[in-house]
Amino acid sequence: MADIQGSYDDLFLAVPTAFAGMLDAGDAGGSVAVLVDGEPVVDVWGGYADAGRTAPWRRDTIVDVWSVTKTMTALCALVLMDRGDLDPDAPVARYWPEFAAAGKDKVLVRHLLAHTAGLPDWDGSVEDLYDWPAATARLAARAPRWEPGTAAGYHSLTQGFLVGEVVRRVTGRGVGEFLADEVTGPLGADFHIGLPAGHDQRVAPAIPPAGRDEDYTSSAPGGPADSEAGNGVRVRDGNSLAWRRAQIPAASGYGNARSVALVQSVLACGGEVNGVRMLSPAGCDRAREEQFDGHDRVLGMPTRWGLGYGLFGNACGWGGWGGSLVMIDPGSRLVVAYVTHQMREPAEDTRGMEIVTAAYEGVRGLR
After folding, report:
1. What are the residue numbers of the active site?
2. What is the sign, positive or negative, of the torsion defined by CA atoms of 282, 188, 336, 167?
3. DSSP classification of residue 217
4. How many Å apart are CA 217 and CA 208, to the nearest integer?
5. Phi, psi (degrees; rounded to nearest 5) at 86
6. In the CATH hierarchy, which top-level class contains the domain 4-366?
7. Which are the contacts of 128, defined by CB distance < 8 A and separation ≥ 6?
8. Residues 87, 158: Cα–Cα separation, whole Å
9. What's the CA angle centered on 120, arms 114 and 124, to 5 degrees?
10. Phi, psi of 108 (to 5 degrees)
């Protein structure tokens, strides 16, 4: 069995066992964390941080978690809503006047968070993603593809700029700065949007699936590589320094399982973790208020969206390209996070849910 580092409660033995099995099956490396009541019952890592398998994955190794980043951006918006600084039912143009162009005057803040705003497509280059003013101006000028609020289509890259610009207009700070100042800083969580150079040596670069190279391109589950959900981002783009430095709040967040689980425990624990009050209980519940239930036009499959989170029964969360995932269950005060740099083909990747299933074995043991 693969050598696993870290610690775990014996009730949750199924989690490191499942993780070790993934490493034994060929995965390079990763980390897993399970928190109950904001306290770690699993905090493990293992494998290697490089494709050549020469550098061990360490306790502080971090990776790009891709679309798991969306849950961090959504939490920033929820914090502002809870403070009364952001109204989910307000037109986006109240905070971002230029956004009203091209018939978007009736797009609401909640539409941005629920992928129902009608702006799923990124029509610029990858390099254009690195220029925040240009990226947000491009989206402000666009016309929606459907009547906002009537349909959902996964805004794989655009959601972060849309929600992020509203955060910036309300607070005067970018999402990365707001997250650091108001969320990860107070919690002591090692998660970053817009990674400073001093952290580069800790990054485990993304590794394409077996048989693929760094030109491997993101795609929707079950969809072609050039689908709208992919928007043409390649592994080599995500591994570039420009990508790390940029704030792409839908896809360029760096952390490990421990930091992802700690931050999202805010929602699992009624808004307070380790003595830090981030949200009211009602503010937490808002994340799971259903905004859409039906066929997602971009993902090509049924989805349920809350305010910034996918809904799965009474739980919420989301996963990222390459396999990273976070699942939040307020009923059990549970958060499960799996973070990896070893990609698999989306249609074949069940690793995150295997970890979640294993975690619930431990939860049953607590009762």
Report:
1. 67
2. positive
3. B
4. 9
5. -140, 130
6. alpha beta
7. 134, 135, 138
8. 20
9. 145
10. -95, 160
- In tens, the pLDDT along 37-89 reads 999 999 999 999 999 999 999 999 999 999 999 999 999 999 999 999 999 99
Query: Do the strands 315-319 and 325-329 form a parallel or antiparallel pair, or are they unpaired?
Result: antiparallel
Residue pair 336/355 in contact (Cβ under 8 Å)? The answer is yes
Tokens for 325, please give them: 């995932």
Distance CA 154, CA 360 (A): 28
User: Nearest to residue 322, comparing CAs of 217, 226, 224?
Assistant: 217
pLDDT on residue 231: 62
Q: Structure pTM?
A: 0.95
Token pair recorded at residue 177: 């700065």
How many percent of the chain have pLDDT more than 70?
96
What span, in angstroms and rounded, lies between the C-alpha atoms of 254 and 251? 9
Choose among 175, 232, 243, 176: nearest CA to 205.
243
Given this model, what pLDDT does residue 281 score?
A: 97
- List the domain boundaries for the chain: 4-366
**Tally of CB atoms within 10 A around 196:** 12
pLDDT band of residue 348 (cuts 50, 70, 90) is confident
Distances (CA, A) of 129 to 34, 160, 163: 33, 11, 15
Mean pLDDT of 240-249: 98
Q: Are strands 292-296 and 315-319 parallel, antiparallel or unpaired?
A: unpaired
Q: pLDDT band for position 361 (50/70/90)?
A: very high
Radius of gyration of the chain (CA): 19
**28 has a pLDDT exceeding 90:** yes
Instruction: Inform me whether the pLDDT recorded for 227 exceeds 50.
Output: no
Sheet harboring 292-296: ordered strands across? 4-8, 39-47, 29-36, 334-340, 325-329, 315-319, 310-312, 301-305, 292-296
Specify the pLDDT at position 2.
Answer: 86
